[in-house]
Structure formats: C-alpha cells, structure tokens
Amino acid sequence: MNRLLIVDDEPIIVDGIYRLLQEEEELQLDLHRAYGGDEALEKLNAIRFDIVLSDIWMPGMTGLELQEHINERWPACKIIFLTGHPDFNYAQTAIRNQCMDYILKTESDETLLRSVRKAIELLQTERMNAGFLDKASEQFQLAVPALQREILQGFCEGTQPLKSLKPELLKSLSIPLTLDGKVMLVMGRVDRWPIQMTKAADKAHMMFAIHNIAKEYLSSCALQSVDVEHNRFFWLIQPKVLLEWGSTHAAAPEDEWSRTIRFVHGTLEMIQSTSLELLKIPLSLAAAKEGVEWREIPARYQKLRAGLSRGLGIGQETILIEGQQSGDFSVDESEIQKQTIRQLIRKWSGNDYVSEEEKQEMYKLLSLLSGMMDPFYEDVGFFLEIYYAIASHLLTQLNRWSVDHAALEEVEMDRVSHYQLHATRKDAFHYLIHAALRLIEARDDEKKEYTNQVVSRLNRYVDEHLDSDLSLTTLSDLVHLNPYYMSRLYKQMTGVNLPDYITDERIKKAKELVVESHLKMHEICKKVGFESPAYFTRIFKKKTGSTPQEFREKHQPTRFK
User: Fold this and answer.
1) Of 457, 505, 460, which is closest to residue 480 (Cα–Cα)?
2) Would you state the pLDDT for residue 409?
3) What pairs with residue 33 in β-bridges?
4) What are the residue boundaries of the Response regulatory domain, all occurrences included (predicted)?
5) Helix (H, G, I), strand (E, B), or coil: what is residue 292?
6) Nearest 5°: CA angle at 520, between 514 and 522?
7) Is the pLDDT of residue 132 over 60?
C-alpha cells in the first residue's frame, strides 16, 4: 500500500481528487489531504509519503518550494504537479527537479488516474531494481563468516545435527569442504595477546592473519577456519583431491589421507613459529591423529579441546598430536556429555524465543536437557554449575521481560533460587526446567494478550468514530505501531484487512440508519464517514446488492413509509 498526499490551497480540488482516488480501490492507496504547502510540509516531516499530488502555485509555500523539501527528505517520493496555468517555465523547473508528471487541472480525471498508476508502477519497479538485491548480496557476503561460525561451531559442539550440514549450504557459505569422505580437525589457541592489543577489532584482525598463515602453508589442502572465542579457533581440513573429484568418489585413497595427515602434522610448527615471528602472537595447537567421518567430529572436538586446555609443561606454545602425548587426550564420554550440556545451556541463554519456530526449538532443547542431566546429579560441582546457569538466566529474563508474576503463580521463585528446598537434585532440576518452560509460555500468553488488546482497541475506535478520519496513519498513531506493520498484524490476527473491516462497519451502520431513521442519504453518508454520496451509493450497492434508497424501501417499517 502506497501513501499519497494531495496538496492544494483550494479545498474543493483537494476533496474532489480525494473522492476520485478513494473510489479506485484497486490502487490500494492510503490517502491524506493538505490544504496548503505549509500544512503539507508538516505532514511530510511527520511521516513518509510515496506519492505527492500538488498544485504548483499556492500562497505561502509554492509547490516548487515544497518539491525541494520532498527531494531532500523523501528522495524516492514521486511528485505529480497540478496547475491551472500552462506555464512552460514552471514545467521546466518542476521536471528539472525530478517531478514525475505535470498535469493541467483542465485535463480529464482519467489523465490524473493514469499518472497515479504510472507512479505506483514506477515505485514497484524501483523497489525491485534499486540495488536491493545487490545490497542484499553484499550484506550476505559480510555475514558469511558469522554464518560459517554458527553452522560449523554448532555442529562441532553438538547443538547442530549432522543433517543440518548439506552440500548446497556449504557451497552457499563458500565453505571449501565436502561431506563425502573424512575430515581432519585441528584446534588452536592464542596463548597471549600483545599488551597493547586490547581492542576486539584488532584481535579479530590478528585471528584473520593467523588463518591466512595456515592457509598459505596448507595450500595443498582444503581448509575452513572458525573462530570459537576471543582466543580460540579450529580448522577443518581435507585433501583437495576430495573437492576435485566431487561426489563421484566416496573417499580419498588411504595413502592420500596418510600424506595429508603427515603434512599437516609437520606443518603445525611452521605455522606456530611464523605467527610468533610476524605477528608476535604465541599459539598452541592440537591436531587429530587422523581424518574421521563427519559424524565423529563432535566427540573428537571435545577431546582435542580438553587436551589443549590441559596442555603440557608451561601450557603455552605447545603442539599436541592426538595419540602421541601422555594420557592420549583421554576424555571419557561423561566429559563429552558435560561439554554438550554446557553448549546447550549457552544456546538457550542466547535466545529470546521471538518467533514460534524459536520457541518450539527451546521447548525441545529444555526437554533434552532434562534427560541429559540424569547421570550427573551426584556430581555436585557440575550440577550446581548447570543449575545456577539456568536459574540465573531465568531470573534475568523474568525481570527483563516484565512478565506478570500472576501468570507464573504456580512457579515458586524461592524453589527456583534454592535447590535445597526440593527432596532430590533431580526434583530440583525438573522443577527448574518446568519454570523455564512456564516462563516462555507466560511471555507468549502476554504477547498474544497484548496483540488482542491492540485489535480490540482498533475495533472499538473504528466503531466509535465511523464518521471520522480512519486512515491507517491515524489508527497507527492510536496504537503506536507502524501503519504497515499494524495492517499486517490485524490481518494476521483476524483474517480480515483493516480497510475492509472499516468499510464493512460503515455499511453495517449505514444499513441501520437507512432503515431506522428519517435521515436523508447524504446525511447518512456523512455520519458513516464516506467522502461523497456517489461513492457511498456505489459501495453500499456492492455490499448489499441494493442502493441505499432501494434498501430503505425494502426494509423500512411501514410507519416510516
């Protein structure tokens, strides 16, 4: 829907054009009026207009002066000038300032409508071709590293299933790996940042430099780097031959993998020393001893991460190869499970559950946590870590969302804050999960209630002001929402377009007045907010099958006849 402003110092012209455009329902215009340039400027300063129909010569601010303000504030707005004087100089100035059309007031209504339709078509074309796709592509490219990180880190940490990795997804995100065959994992850590390097942007730049060094030395391999935290990262590596062969080979020959593994292991020291020499950044690296199937990567990820965290000696500038150090990176399955639970907690606490899809995902995640914690209730330290991570976030969200505590009356916050109030740790954790689920439901209930209140307020206002201005802009000010968002929200909640509801209510009231009063038709027309009797008659007949007079004659009680 486009917003159109009619500007002229002669009210009869403004109102006449308003009625003409109002009858052209297929144009889907949100119509506004201004009886002079100054009033028009006030409206233009308040809201955006897509099309302006303006007289050129007006007392006070002229149409050409108004055009300058429009071009400065709303450059995409299409301006159609109306004039009673075929002055070439005016036309020349208007066109030079990017006026879309120039119409004499003596021309036909069809000429005006044709110009408005042309403006609408031009707006639609520009919105499609104004570089939006190019800009979207540019923005997507800027977002690629974050998307790569979200997908691959989520997979490695167990919060994204393997099935979420699809060949077309890897291709769209420029990830130079194939899901056909094995993959090798290397974990890395910046042991110490230079003292002067305190800004996050500088550290991110250095991380990028570290990855470039790795890609340079491992140029014979396909490598994808992912930053995990401010000082940690990992690389996923495959022989390039896998990509060159494509999907016709399930795996590279074992001798090719053996060469790749030896090459990567032998090159880690060079990557480490170059980083220290050129960037003054010491690194520690931990590499898998072999390539593994993709489904094995999450478990291998946790083992390498734990091995790197444990370290050897002074714990800095180490290079660890799985299977070559004491302890063999041994991490039992329970430790891997703990890491997965921690990752799930981080994912839950970083989500606001705005969409229905996100909400359902959180339901599944919290239910999954209930089962995953079963082996760890006797591990007091880990239980307390997870319990209070959830409880703390829960209380933060409760305060941040300002959820009505009455909506959570079945949840006792003392029993959330103090696990000792429950018979067992398992009971305490299940109660905590129940509270988290109820919070999500309560927030959703409040959101729905607020939305219903908005719809009810709109309906009530429409019913009480049928004879007034009921434009989308007026109604949006009432509920403090953007007009277009308000319109979509109303349609989503009721299944009816808001303008259609307004028209239906006006016709409903008009039918009552036609049958139950002695008012003349032009008086009824005014009472129900129609701009002209002709337009009122046309819409009335469209909705009822009869003109207002025919409807009165058919339905009015005998005493009124």
Assistant:
1) 457
2) 67
3) 6
4) 3-120
5) strand
6) 100
7) no
Q: What integer pLDDT is reported at residue 471 of this predicted model?
A: 86
Segment 194-243, tens digit of pLDDT = 988 888 888 989 999 999 999 999 998 999 999 987 889 999 999 988 77
Backbone angles phi, psi at 282, to 5 degrees: -80, 135
Q: State how far the Cα of 86 lies from the Cα of 76, in Å rounded to an integer.
A: 26
pLDDT of residue 250: 45
User: Torsion angle, CA of 194/200/205/207, rounded to 10 degrees?
Assistant: 70
Are 185 and 236 spatial neighbours (Cβ–Cβ below 8 Å)? yes
Q: Are 185 and 235 in contact, with CB atoms under 8 Å apart? A: yes
249-269 in b/e form (b: 16+ CB < 10 A) is eeebeeeebeebbeebbebbe
Q: How high is the pLDDT of residue 185?
A: 96
List Cβ neighbours of 472 (8 Å cut-off, separation of 6 or more): 1, 30, 483, 484, 486, 487, 498, 499
Task: Give the SS3 label for residue 29.
Answer: strand
Q: For residue 190, is pLDDT > 80?
A: yes
Cα gap 340→302, rounded to integer Å = 9
- Which contacts (CB < 8 Å, 24+ apart) does range 275-280 have? 275/210, 275/213, 276/317, 278/209, 278/213, 279/206, 279/209, 279/210, 279/213, 280/194
CA distance 445 to 524: 42
